[in-house]
Amino acid sequence: MPVDATYLRTIEHWRVRFESVGVPGSSIDSVVTNLDDWSDWPQLWKQLGDKEVAYAVDQEERGHDITASAGWYRAGLYYHYGLFVLFDNEPVRSQLVDAKLAAFSNAFRGMHPGVEQVTLESAAGVLHANVRRPDTSEPPPVVIILPGADSSKEEYVGFEDLLLDRGLATISVDGPGQGETRHRGVGWRFDYETAFPAVIDFVRSSDELRTDGIGLIGFSFGGYLAPRVAALCPEIIATVSLGGCFDLSGWDDLPPLLKADLMYLFEIPDEEEVRRRATDEVTLRDSLPGVRGDLLAVHSTADRIFSHQNARAMKELKPTTEVVIYEGGDHCCHNRSHHAKPMMADWLADHLG
Using H for helix, E for strand and C for coil, what is the string for 23-87? Predict the structure, then answer.
């Protein structure tokens, strides 16, 4: 498919997100410059990833472990972003995911605080998660991090660092249908939240985490999933929804690539069926009143994915919801992340004690 003006606008939307997690602007430019057709997108990112792997290996051989870790992490991001328009070629997608997971695993070796990769037996199947703990003398509170429709647990290392700096542990989870969990065979379910008592059980079983200080944050579509999880798990005492939706009643107005993302996530190839199920089953109307802890909804006035009115809808149904709207911010406040991310980290630290 040729790259038309609509898709170029999508790339510009992605640019801020990519740069906010550590992708150099020059790497994005190299992809855009050489992109004649969307079918080239995965291969262009793979080429960048392969070059970064070679760089990381060279740095390891020189004994520069911290530099190598950063290179491995960039390689993982490159492979991950190569997946963004790859919905109909599972062999290539699987190769990219394998390369991505290997690169991130290598990156974790040089990170401080370290990363523990764990598997959790849940009602939905085996979940894959990354656990990090701050350097504290006492067991810390913990924040569970949920990805969105096209993201995965490894993308949130920078936000994890903000939480770790504030004395909070982190558990970044690929839920059903997401990231490594999907890659290992556990698909999406509309009752996504039923998998998360397993995460609470993991916290309870650990002597290194506080069971009375569990928080939760979801990014983008994860901002919709987070209140559903919080409603099912009363142990969660503070929840943040960033850039999330209240429901998908406006399915027809969603950007085409988001629809494609959600069709892939839901594993429903028929457009009419996915529209029906999305509008019927993706809603916070029944679950939001069940959220027992504090809730913060963060949004932006220039969000082209989910309108900031979604945050106001959350407050209308649950009046105690705190709402923060960033004027001129884009989806998930990527262009306001220097303010939004520390604010959310502080809010979680304040509420988890």
Answer: CCHHHHHHHHHCCCEHHHHHHHHHHHHHHHHHHHHHHHHCCCHHHHHHHHHHHHHHHHHCCCCCC
pTM here is 0.97
Q: For 225, left (φ over 0), alpha (ψ -120 to 50), or beta?
A: alpha
**What contacts 91, CB < 8 A, 6 or more positions away?**
none
Token pair 């009752």 is found at 191
Q: How far apart are CA 220 and CA 306, in angstroms?
A: 8
- Domain interval for residue 226: 116-247+283-352
Instruction: Give the C-alpha separation, 136 to 348, whole Å.
Output: 17
Query: What local confidence, expressed as pLDDT, does residue 13 receive?
Result: 79
Whether residues 34 and 149 fall in one domain: no
End-to-end Cα, the chain, rounded Å = 51
The verdict on 233 and 312 lying in the same domain is yes
* Structural tokens at position 108: 């974790």
